[in-house]
Amino acid sequence: MKELFQHTALTDGVTVRVAVNFLPEQSRIEAGKWFWVYHIRIENETPHALQLMTRRWRITDGNGEVNVVEGDGVVGEQPVIEPGHSYDYVSGCPLPTPQGSMEGYYTFHRVDGQGDEIRAATPFFPLAAPATAG
Description:
It comes from Novosphingobium aureum. By secondary structure, the protein is mostly beta strands. The chain has strands at residues 7-11, 14-22, 34-44, 50-61, 66-72, 80-81, 86-95, 99-110, 118-128.
């Protein structure tokens, strides 16, 4: 099955694509826990090899509560992405509400040590659970 990327952002030759899906089997709605999985594809269209160094997510739940998540790399890795190549990973996000959103950025350094850091935006994407019978 081919993944359908619903959201895209382009910054300085780095494209970030996101596909997001609600996972009812991982959610505990009766306990106030909703869970989404998101697939990220990062495409390097610069002429330089780039290493993903850090990530920053701003996660907002349906009550307007904001949680900022920052750290090194993604899913325990700091991948090097060669020119014309991409890197994919999948992660998840729990929320205490049936809707919310995510947005943020990645920082990259050129592997050759030249040039400035690139701060590539991740596209804003909504987290929305389907309506449930009540």
